[in-house]
Amino acid sequence: MANEDKPCPCDIGDRLEYGGLGQEVQVEHVKAYVVKPSSPSHKAVIVIQDIFGWRLPNTRYMADLLAANGYIGICPDFYVGKEPWNPSDDWSTFPAWLEDRKPTDIKREVDAVLRFLKHQCGAQQVGVVGFCWGGVATHYIALQYPEVTAGVSFYGIIREREDRHEIKSPVLFIFAENDDYIPAEQVCALEATLKEKCKVEYRVKLFPGQTHGFAHRRREDIHPADKPKIEEARTDMLNWLKKYM
Q1: Which residue of the set 132, 139, 165, 216 is catalytic?
Q2: Which pTM was predicted?
């Protein structure tokens, strides 16, 4: 998914054979995967799915990676029971599928998750990390929720909103140079707008030679040449969160 207004489906990539270390819980009207670090923590990160849904093992792996680094990780079902995109579905039906799954129409779910993290998990700081569809959602949350401490948006842009630069907390935007769904000019336009108007810390980073989904949907053992960039992107994510949380 490239933009909120011009969505594109994307290849599922390398699906991990991974079970996850956390558990599924009910958070008000939303189901969620929650994983906690080995030691008590007052810091939590909301991990937002791509179009393939909250149960994709690759996304749960990223939540577990965050827990291994001291954060409570929570991956909610932001589709609220609606079916995620299936790689075998007809691409021409994607816009209709997206119509009631817009990444900028998640306020009720975000509010529920924030209440859960505060009251049930004791979280005092909350960050957000999102991929593809979730990258757009992360950008949206950064615009709407000043109480969210930091964000990392992987390959997702809100392009058409005039206030897209008005992020309320520091955001790291990670993109791939060879992304068929987010052309380089969109990345440049976002960076130029942020540079001119943004009042909080941000960073826009473009990874050369990489494609959409590389940081969470590409397996290093299948693509060893890409391993350094995959690890670099994940390290950038962790360093950004550590800096601001």
Answers
A1: 132
A2: 0.94
Distant-in-sequence, close-in-space partners of 34: CB < 8 Å, separation ≥ 6: 22, 23, 24, 25, 72, 73, 74, 75, 121
Owner of token pair 């209709």? 96
Candidate list 77, 179, 216, 226, residue with the active-site label: 179
29 belongs to the catalytic site: no
Percentages helix, strand, coil for the chain (3-state, rounded to 5) are: 35, 20, 45
Q: Is 165 a known active-site residue?
A: no
Domains of the chain: 23-244 (3.40.50.1820)
Question: pLDDT of 42-92, one tens digit each?
Answer: 999 999 999 999 999 999 999 999 999 999 999 999 999 999 999 888 888
Q: Active site includes 139?
A: no
Which is the catalytic residue, given 64, 121, 165, 212? 212
Of 51, 115, 44, 39, give the one whose Cα is nearest residue 78. 51
